[in-house]
Structures are given as structure tokens and as C-alpha cells.
Amino acid sequence: MAEITITPIANVGDSIERIEREIEARKSDSTLALKGALLWGWHVVALLAYLRLQPHREEFDAWVQDYLEHGEPGLDAERDARWENRQRLSSFELIDLMSEVDLPILKPEFYQGWQDRTSRCQTLRRKVAAVIGTSLNAMQRENLLLLLAGYHRLTRLPAEVRLDPSAVWQSFPALLDLLEILIGKTASDLSHFSTGVEKCRSALKKA
Q1: How far is CA 178 from each of CA 16, 90, 132, 171, rounded to the nearest angstrom?
Q2: Residues 134/181, Cβ–Cβ less than 8 Å
Q3: Strand, coil or helix: what is 99?
Q4: What is residue 96's three-state secondary structure?
Q5: Packing angle, helices 30-53 and 165-183, rounded to 10
Q6: The pLDDT of residue 100 is above 80
Q7: Beta bridge partners of 136
Q8: Which terminus of the chain has a smaller tally of CB atoms within 10 A, N or C?
Q9: CB 107 within 8 A of CB 93
Q10: Which of 152, 7, 34, 33 is nearest to 85 (CA)?
Q11: pLDDT digits (tens, 9 = 90+) for 3-47
Q12: 56: DSSP letter
């Protein structure tokens, strides 16, 4: 079979549909459906954040630009098998960057430069807010951190997991809110994804 190309846009659409299917599956298995919904939800966050920030790459410092490189699209076993999280912005780092300017720093060691870390963080948060159009308040951030913790426990850590699925599901609308924020109101090439997010909201209400 010949090589095919999967664009970030196509990838977003597919993963949003998968979120909806996982939410609908909640009726039969709340915990495993939560795993799938979180997996695909945070996948969409990573894609949308890249699509929104990458066009503004040159506006950021060089060390931030490294996270927003186009990269080589072709699959390379030698290179891609060695891929590590530090080669892109993690969801945790993204939440930190999208937080309101005066909220406490989540990951001080992430921020580089000649300024103190607080000033560096606040400068970057202002730049990100200027691109995205808004910031995350304390309540939004708290809910997203719970959802990120659930994602890590269910999909990234090999140890036994004990949690209350209903408590995590209760915060799930915050992840859909984040998707809407990243889709944006003026990003015409992404705006059609709002329909898919609304379908996820409807499925969540019915589940």
C-alpha cells in the first residue's frame, strides 16, 4: 500500500468523533469509557494547541520555538521510536501556559531565560493569551488538572488504579470547554469542530 498523509486537521476530527463514541459507551462501562474519552480528549488538546500556536512560532523565544517546529512528517522507525514527551509541549505545560497571569506557576523549571521564573512565566502567559484569545481561571485549571491526573493514571501509568469515575466524569465538561477555547471563534479553519464538541456535550448529558 502506498504511503498516506494524515493532516493535524483530519486527526482532530477523527479524535473528536472518538470522544463522542467513548462518552456514549459510558452507559455500559463508565470506567473504561472514561479512559478512552480522556485519551482522545487530551490528544485533541495537543493537536489544537499546536495548530493555534505554531503559526505564531516566531513570536516566541527560541527555546519555546523548539516545541513548535513543523517536524518531518514521514514515519522513521529509528527516529520516531526514540520520541520522548519533552519534544513537544505536554498537557501539563500547556495548562500552565494558558493559566491566568497571576495564578501560581505549575512547573517553574520549565521557564527559561534571563528573567526570574515568575516574570518569564507571566510574559509567556500573556503571549499565549494574545494568540488563543483567553486564559484559564483557577476553577477551570483545577478541573483540568483532575482530568489530566485521571488520564495519566488510566493510560500512562502501568500500576493499579483506584478512582471514582463519577467524580472525574463530573469535571469532563472542562475538557470540552478547553477544546472550544482552542478551536477559537475566529479560527475559521477550525470552527467547524465546534459541532463535534457540541455532540460530545449532548452525549455527556444523556449518558
Answers
A1: 13, 15, 11, 12
A2: yes
A3: strand
A4: helix
A5: 20
A6: yes
A7: 99
A8: N
A9: yes
A10: 152
A11: 898 899 999 999 999 999 999 999 877 788 999 999 999 999 999
A12: G
